[in-house]
Design brief:
The chain has helices spanning 7-29, 35-53, 60-63, 74-93, 102-119, 121-124, 136-143, 152-160. With 161 residues, it is mainly alpha-helical. It folds into two domains: 7-71, no CATH class; 79-160, no CATH class.
Length: 161
């Protein structure tokens, strides 16, 4: 399977979400939309209504470019991107894993996560803040987040990027 760069998609979705938040605030406060925002709104709603008129399965996410067919939502994309950045950072920071190639590091990291998940997570799942020591801090964030720990092949791919 070829490596897929989702950074552009995540950035575009995040940009659109930021625009929608700003549009919401402006409309809520009775302030006018910018010219660009008016075009985004007209194009998004127009695409949605066209799809309905054509008898298709309409989706506001897709009409506004937030999600492609078969794609993931912006929130999910951002959660996965954040998880992947945490995993790459952890690989660079833990001395035992730093010199390892991505495949070997992925196996050791997943084994460490599984031990954390079995031994510590049941006691720490209700904490308000992550533990201060790595790798437990990252494992806690992943276990309590919206993006599960990947398997070894996917983790190896994440570490290669």
């Amino acid at each position: 399977m070829a490596d897929v760069d989702t950074t552009r998609d995540v950035d575009e979705a995040a940009g659109m979400v930021a625009q929608l938040r700003d549009m919401h605030g402006r409309l809520r406060d009775g302030r006018p939309l910018t010219g660009r925002q008016v075009l985004l709104l007209v194009d998004g709603l127009g695409g949605y209504l066209e799809t309905i008129d054509d008898g298709g399965a309409a989706s506001l996410d897709r009409s506004f470019g937030l999600k492609q067919w078969g794609g993931v939502s912006p929130a999910r994309s951002m959660a996965l991107d954040q998880r992947d950045r945490m995993l790459r950072r952890l690989w660079r920071e833990v001395p035992e894993w730093r010199p390892l190639m991505p495949g070997a590091a992925a196996r050791q990291m997943l084994a460490s996560f599984r031990r954390y998940e079995t031994d510590r997570w049941p006691r720490e799942r209700h904490l308000q803040l992550a533990p201060v020591v790595e790798p437990a801090a990252t494992w806690w964030r992943i276990a309590s987040g919206n993006a599960a720990m990947p398997d070894v092949p996917r983790l190896r791919q994440i570490l290669k990027t």
